[in-house]
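The records we work with from here on pair a chain with its fold. The integers have meaning only within a learned vocabulary of local backbone shapes. A complete example follows; check for yourself that the lines match position by position.

:::
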Amino acid sequence: MIDECMEGNIDLVITKSISRFARNTLDCQKYIRQLKDKNISVFFEKENINTMDAKGEVLLTIMASLAQQESQSLSQNVKLGLQYRYQQGKVQVNHNRFMGYTKDEEGNLIIVHEEAEIIKRIYREYLEGKSLAGIGRDLEKDGILTAAGKPRWRPETIKKIPMNEKYIGDALLQKTFTVDFLTKKRVKNEGRVPQYYVENSHEVIIRADGNVMKYTIQLVCFYARLMKR
């Protein structure tokens, strides 16, 4: 939109609120001044502010600062809510591009049986010592697509499967976390915030016969993560 304004295609911007216009006070001021230089006004409906008014920019700076604080407070509340869910052992998993599982109407992980057979095959061949490249070549030869629907199986894609504890019915929560509430940037959690391990949280694809086998699989997952670092 800013580019369209700079090219002279827009002469008035109407937006619902300051929080919808920019992520923080500095960005808000920067864009407003760029637009004012082009004689383009911005009208904020919720706050009833027009940037071409004499007092518009002063009010806008104050309101933008308040909007940023509100956004930060909301982000913190969301974090606390997630933390509480994790402490209660409530599993929340993004199932997009997650081969072997989908979600039911209540948000619980359920098995997609056709995909589960692929997971079992990969897991079996991995534990038998077959190379990642070899597993990938055979999957491609058999015309099996990845979770993203692609024909190419990359070694790093295959390696993630035996590293994923969810296939044995468990869930490691908070593997990643948000470091900046403005940019929503997420990074890998390497001990900066707590993690929670929940056993028997959902249906199992890689079924272990007895605790010894299950702990063996958990060790494979653990050492695979260490090798990745």
Residues 1-79 form a domain with the Rossmann fold fold (CATH 3.40.50.1390).
